[in-house]
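Hello again, I could really use a second opinion on something today. I've been staring at a protein lately and its backbone has me curious. Please have a think about how the structure follows from the sequence. I owe you a coffee for this, so here goes:
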Amino acid sequence: MGIEISSILAAEHEIGNKMARKDQERWNQKWLFVTGQADDPHPLLKRFVDRLTGETALDIACGRGQNGLYLAKNGFQVLGVDISNVALEMAKKSAADQDLEGRIHFKQADLDIWKLPQEVFDVIVVFRFLNRSIFHAIEEGLRSGGWLVYSSRNMGILASEPKANKDYLLKRGELSDEFRSWELIYSHEGDVDSSIVVRKPLSFDSRDQEVSKLIGRRLGFDAGK
């Protein structure tokens, strides 16, 4: 486990206000009645996992952990974060069953107030979760050149679920617009969900290192070391 993830796990965090505690109770009740194996990893993650680079990954609102577990299987050191302690216990059991305990760790946190440490993660994934206040935190939490894989429901779901809370639904094009200054790898606006894969722009230092490594490879040595 990396030093950064160890420090995040060690930091104390409390579930915030009464609303957050109600959210925790609501999600706990949902997960208490879920049985069987966790769902398969999200198709978007399966499609792009071979292109993802780096060592550390964060799974935001991880639920039972299927996406984080998939990243761990593919070589990443993963931190999964969720408000539901019930879901996290299920995720931990799945990690133990798959012999992945050394590669994935879980933390309970109120995502309304939890602050991501700066530039710790190479990959951040978010599926079926929307809290617009974390957009800036995602930007700060990713290292330069890091990957964001994000998919969540959009306003189109109202056609079949008219009582769905619009606060938790993406507007069409919202994700692409929010991360418009990043390198766009993939974007899709479906009938009921919106998805993007983007890369955070490299800092000048990171660009210099990448150029040095490229030159080094062409010259037959590693100029980045």
User: Anything to note?
Assistant: The domain at 3-219 is CATH 3.40.50.150 (Rossmann fold).
